Amino acid sequence: MSRLDELIEEALREEDREIIEATSEQGWFQLGLSQFSGKLGWVTWVIMITQAILFLAGVWCAIYFFNTTELLSAVKWGLSGAVLILMATQLKLSLMPKMQADRVLREMKRLELILASHRS
């Protein structure tokens, strides 16, 4: 915790301590898990379930790819597996902008608190 954070906490009244705790900086895993709650938490659940299904289907295709002996079958299973795994990866990466936006909004709330404490 930085010195600025300590000064902000000292300047706030008891009622405002809840606000400062709500805007405290979150770690990577805590920020990721927070995506599963809130108004749009259901979207994250749908994306993650779909991503898991695509990944498992891609692994299944990869197993068949490595077990086949014919060239045409290998191309069919290999291309299908690669596309499914790439789709799963893209879906998982689609959550990153929301995580970054949440970090920015949290810091904006912190700045608002700083300004509010300077006014009073």
TrEMBL record:
One protein family per Pfam = DUF6768
- InterPro entries tied to this protein: DUF6768
The keyword Transmembrane helix is assigned to this record? yes
Ranges that cross the membrane: 42-65, 77-95
The UniProt keywords, alphabetically, are: Membrane, Transmembrane, Transmembrane helix
Q: What is this protein called?
A: DUF6768 family protein
- From which source organism is this entry? Pseudohalocynthiibacter aestuariivivens
